[in-house]
Write a structure and sequence with these properties.
This protein has 77 residues and is mainly alpha-helical. It has a domain at 1-11 and 32-67. The protein is built from three helices and two strands, in the order ββααα.
């Protein structure tokens, strides 16, 4: 998924400590990723956060993957 995050992932200094949020809501990318890592299904997450869409969850995953890709690797010890 080649995403343009600007319409879905928003960062506002006064909201949730400047963490990446979904569509200006109080729901952070971390909230969604943490729930996925805990084993929650997409349907469970959508039930917990009724304002979310399936597309939002996929965009969180793509956003995290892009951030991971950009991390600088440390040289071996």
């Amino acid at each position: 998924m080649k995403a343009s995050y600007s319409e879905i992932i928003t960062i506002e200094t006064g909201k949730r400590g400047g963490k990446p949020c979904i569509r200006g809501l109080q729901i952070t990318v971390y909230d969604v990723l943490d729930d996925l890592a805990a084993g929650m299904s997409e349907d469970e997450i959508l039930a917990d956060f009724p304002d979310l869409l399936s597309e939002d969850i996929r965009t969180c995953l793509a956003f995290a993957a892009d951030r991971e890709r950009r991390l600088v690797s440390l040289p071996p010890l």
